Amino acid sequence: MTAESVRFEQVTKRFGAVTAVNNLTLHIQPGEFMVLVGPSGCGKTTALRMLAGLEDPTAGEIYIGERCVNDVSPRDRDIAMVFQNYALYPHMRVYDNIAFGLRLRELKGALWQLTHLGEARAIKQRIDARVRQVAQMLEIENLLHRLPKELSGGQRQRVALARAIVRQPKVFLMDEPLSNLDAKLRDQTRAELKKLQERLGVTTIYVTHDQKEAMTLGTRIAVMKDGVLQQVGTPEAVYFRPANTFVATFVGAPPMNLLQARVVEHDGKPALRLGGNTIAVLEAQARALTQWVGKPVLMGVRPQDIYTDRTAPPDAILSEPIHAVVDVVEPHGDRNDVHLLIDGATAIAQLSARVKVSEGEPLPIRLHLEYLHLFNPETGDAIGG
User: Fold this and answer.
1) What do you get for the CA distance between the two ends of the chain, in Å?
2) Which terminus in the chain has less CB density within 10 A, N or C?
3) Among residues of the chain, what percentage have pLDDT more than 90?
């Protein structure tokens, strides 16, 4: 298969007074697995539908390769789309569901005519070979004779994927294709889908509201909110260096803790004051806070980066102990999500279940300073980037 780049250049889509996508500029490399992620109504599906040609942009240009496709019909964009609801033809057997698009595109009616029978027979044989090759790849060869109603949800999803793959498109578009599967099957199919995309090397744009799905699948992820692109980067970059408080709290489970702090002078350099606790920050963080002395900031720390003296790794750069009180303990088997009260503020620490804590118990905690995040409380943007 041949992979193509995809570009959104200042693309906007309005539905009356509602702006679903606002000035989207996003470049996707050939063969890349790009995941558009965000809450419901953020514009990710609208962006996908514009790329597919199912919606026309109000402004801006969309490119597949070097060709602007704004005025190109969906059938001529050389894409294949996998939908949330599978969209299989209920009266066709699995074989015919997979082969249908190929027949439309390649045979152009020759198979159903009495003329050019030799050519039609050769095309039919090529289609049969491709259908069976893809069915074998997705391990559904034994289902080719069945109707969609005779399949499980996971089997239907594989058929929908096979129908897209068999066309050998330049771009795959996937709109929450795993959301109808149960949790165990979704995890299994997600791993298979990632391996399949790496094997095929086709540019893939995948829409989901599930940040776990985005983090595990994407070469890069694009986080959207209210039609506006918030951040684009590798899963690691978005997780460890969020551009703003929305990305910080949307990506990661439990979400990042955001605590109101004040920048103070401590030992001749900026530090953070959290309630009755003073937190001496690292040198780079202190430089970023030089202009913030005397002002409030939002301090972000992920639940996984809060430790007790018993759980702190030996190589971590930790803050001095911060006084906290256990409010609620949520067991999750191997770990507990421990809700803490810190001078009236609340935070969640993710601690090993081997660490026994009780509600109402004082619990000194330490923060991993290397993974401390600082945000402008007015704009939500990261300080010191």
Assistant:
1) 39
2) C
3) 65
